## 1
Amino acid sequence: MRLSFPQLLARIGFSALAAIIGILFALPLIWFIFAPFNARAELGIAIPDPWTLQNFLTVFGNGFAMRGLLNSLIQSVGGVILVAAAATLAAYALSRSSIPGKSIVTYVLLLFSSVVSGTAAMVPIFLIVSSVGLMDTHIAVILVFAGGLLPTAMFILRDFIDGIPKTYEESAMVAGASPVQAFFDVALPVIRPGIVVVVVWAFVNIWGSFLIPFILLRSDDLMPSSVAIYSFYSEAGTPIVTLLAAYSLIYSLPVVALYLFVSWKFGFRFFGGIKA
Amino acid sequence: MASVEFQNVTKSFGTFNAVSDISFKVADGEFICLLGPSGCGKTTSLRMIAGLETPSSGKIMIGPDDVTHLHPKDRQISMVFQDYALYPHMNLADNIAYPLKVRGESVEKRHKRAKEVADVLKIGDLLNRLPSQISGGQQQRTSLARALVYPSRVYLFDEPLSNLDAKLRLEARGFLNHLQRDMGMTAVYVTHDQAEAMALATRIAVMDRGRIVQFAPPIEIYRRPATTFVANFVGNPPMNMIPVEGTVDGERLQLRAHGVLVRDLPISQGIKAALGKGAGLTLGVRPEHLSMGTINDVNMVSGKLFANENMGPEKLVTFERQDGGRVTARIFTDDAVETTENVAFTFDGAHATLFDAEGKRIPADGEMPL
Ligand SMILES: Nc1ncnc2c1ncn2[C@@H]1O[C@H](COP(=O)(O)OP(=O)(O)O)[C@@H](O)[C@H]1O
Ligand SMILES: [Mg+2]
């Protein structure tokens, strides 16, 4: 096919625009990869000369920041387990049972969840947590995250389970399985790809969250990385770019690793039903 | 094996009765087909036997036990689902052996048994595959194997062949018939395909809008359809239905379609009773009972040629009568239809069925069971 001159011009223009936008998005990432290995990193992009691990060594020496990574892991994993387990059971019940008005329940919860995890609810959450006596504990952070993420997780999973034919469990029960056996043997493995999506989504949410742990925790040795990252700011509030870059890279690795692991193990693909 | 009995079973969803007050009994070793158009309540009835739906009222018995409120797992039954319901994460061996797993059999024992059943069904060398890696016909046999792998009192089938292509369907149908003869299983088989029901059933329950309209052996359903609905549903092409006006002339009844005399027969007790409901009757004639004739014959229908379809050993000749109604005849391929304007066919009065004004079949006097 031959293009007319104006068409050709339009194509070139469009491609150029797309390239510029692409570069704009790529720049921070390039910085993110180069800066940690540069002893003189600044906010501009520069190829490290020489490449060095000095930034990382300094970061590893910062006990508060290292402890933060562990705390992030405790809070994220705890929250993810709670969200995934509770959302799976709740979504399964909401999808399979014939409770009247069950979809209203889901929508109301979904509506409130944006309130619960929102900034507006911070004062009441603070009051509740402190009156229950859970202030400054991992449990408090985990519970508040779970409460905020659960409705959306339930919504995602319910939708997923609705799409799975009931006949899987029905055939298991006719074959002699109890409802619990049918759930664990047949339903759960089929739902697993949906659960994996929720796990990744919840992990990323908790891992990157700043406000909730910042408000609910006091002790330095409980703070997650999202808070601990502020130890790489000078007294005056200016970032120490070199260390910040190195720590950021370390901080982002678990999320990347989780994505890689999940896509290797589960491929982000779904079994679905068997089509005839 | 065991018998199955429905006692005045009704199942309603909200205000809608999917199954209305049906009662029937399946004897031990019988193969029953529930036949009817889509939405008539076949699946719902079957699921109530399985325990996947609970009747709104009435009672269901399996053998001597009232199972109306029993959990499916405690009913000792097998079911083959329309979508096969094979577990996508288990290979065929584990799929087939799953019922044995929940019965607490050891791994060796259940894989040995799965292999035996799979070999009978010719899927023995696919046992390591996942359900997504085998063909539709093989999936169907896998779901059958899973139903056969453990001893059951009743076997339930919900349109198990409807997802297969025509050739595989015939093959599977033959196999099911063989299996029934071999095992003498009690089976309830749901289908909307009348040929399947004819081929497999010892008795057919024809359902319409949540009710059973006729429950009889296939031959009786075919030869003596209880209502015009059954006559229309069973047989391919279906029975020809000719609306006729009945007039009494002495001791004889004359049937006219648009003034043209179609048939003249002696009045029986049944006809007398039927005429009480109205003179608008329906004459039913199966396509194979029509043969080529002339305008002057008795028991004659005629009209303009509409279609002439060659089927191999036979052909289907369809013509349009004066009132626009169509009649199809099944005749030998070598019988030539000479004219197109006034095609005439005669039928043997003994094979014609008369339905009263309400669409119910009028029995002949002293009719013997078939
Ligand atoms: N769970 C249900 N809720 C509401 N209506 C249903 C349900 N299951 C079946 N029905 C209705 O009951 C009728 C009979 O359904 P079904 O037994 O599946 O018919 P068939 O198998 O003969 O095609 C249909 O009109 C269907 O829409
Ligand atoms: Mg059905």
Note: Chain B has a mean pLDDT of 92.
## 2
Amino acid sequence: MKSEILYPGAFPMVRVELAEGEHIKAESGAMVACSPTIDIESKMEGGFLGALSRKFLTGEKFFFQTLRASRGAGEVLLAPTVPGEIVVLDLDGVSEYMVQKDGFLAGADGVTIDSQMQSMSRGLLGGEGFFILKMSGKGMLLLNSFGAVHKIELKPAQEYIVDNSHLVAWSTTTSYNIEKATSGWVASFTSGEGFVCRFRGPGLVFIQSRNPGGFGAWVRQFIPVTE
Amino acid sequence: MSFQPNALCFGDEFSATGLPCLVHVEGHGLTMTFLSDSDASERRSESVPFAELTVSAGGLDHDQLVATWTGPTGQRTLYLKNPDVIRAFRQAAPDHLTIPLERAAEQVRQVRQRRRIVWTIVGGALLASVLGLWFGSDLLVELAVDRIPIEWERKLGESAYRDFLARQEVMKEGPAVAAVTEMTHRLTDQIPENPYRFEITIVKSDVVNAFALPGGYIVVFTGLMKKAERPEEVAGVLAHELNHVLQRHGLERIVKQLGFVAVLSIVLGNPPGLGGVMKQLGVELMTLKFGRAQETEADLTGLQLLYRAKIDPSGMITFFQRLAEKDEGRVEWLSTHPMSAARAERLKIELDLLPRREPVPFSFEWRTIREK
Ligand SMILES: [Zn+2]
């Protein structure tokens, strides 16, 4: 499996080459185009409510699709919904990452995706719900962001404070506390919610340079209110 | 043999991701094997005696074993989560590490237990509220429905109504339409302070059915009209359907379902399919199955409405009885309006309690309409 990022910048697309028999799991809706040798397996059988209840009963993910090169080698073009960068990570079998739900674009067959309940405090305060994705295993992992991706490298015991809504992914060797931004910080963070994560190294934290919620609020003010 | 790392090692000269390494527990301490940066086939090892280690629990869920020491090249931090390695470590570790190891293990247990307790409580509360909304607490549903303006209800019903009619052959004029219009007027004239503008459409179909959508949209199938021997029977069904609207039964069902969906959407963040749920709801409006209590309410209020409109209420009763007899034809009305012999019986008793009143017949000839 090989990947190449096309048009790097705000509107990138990624080309993934699949050998015969290989498959890639992608966020549903990420597929832009593919070779005729690729089969798209959607996991939405039984309609939304059916998929939803299956998810609750079996933990099966309902927002992914599998693109499989079942009839020969081929390529797939993938793109995220929002404008922003795509990052390629190569999982080595030991490193694991937590990825917020909208940050996942695609993962190779060797990558294990677990939908996990995240900690109570983040579930309540983070505004992304209680499910978060845990990526482990070996192989290529594609993440996407809203805006540009910035990588923060933390040495052991090194700390860094990140606004909740800017988080994309972080290593499981890090730890964090949710804190309420005190009045001194509020001005310096774009989110008005005032909750931040104090991360502690070692490990990586990927953040996005734009906040989807903040952008949504900004756009809304220009939408004329009609009856 | 391929290199199968089982831990991550952090140090000043390593990248922040940590360097994957293969940890072996030996009698004197730990040995880490790394792949060389320059040549993937070349390996190099580092050893550290137990005496130099300090251990604690760490990582995102505080479930990894963290060992730190100062090596010849500076501070080293090792993150272990492989259970086999951790077990071997605990067995081989000398006395001075036993207490910190136990403390770390205790911390992991505590974190797991705390999580379990929190999630059990949350899960239980969630389940209780879902079940509560789903089954019981009709009062809560009624309170919620009371707050929904008629205008919203009208919009909701109208979109489903137009959607449905677009796919059907509609009877626009003729004696049947005039007859149903006359029946409707007789009935609606007796509704004081009616906030709805009722719209009734006859659909050409052999299916024996009639249904009401929230907001006052009623559909009657020609199949149902053919099955009626007297116009009072059709008027009985209309009176029943009008009361589903007036009592806002459809809205009550939707609020019950939305309550469930709303809980789910909070749990899942903003699920990509919330739009799908709304669409699904639109479809379910058509096949909306009312509850037994709602049917009884629509029956009784329907009967009173017929009585006030001076339409013979016995038509409603005989029609229900005839529909309940299992016979030929696709009687779909029964699938959305569960019928039982008890229903007709109940209406009979209710009718006997009312003082007798001379009904006023309709102006049209039913037989000619029915034959057409
Ligand atoms: Zn009914």
Note: Residues 95-134 of chain B form the longest helix (40 residues).
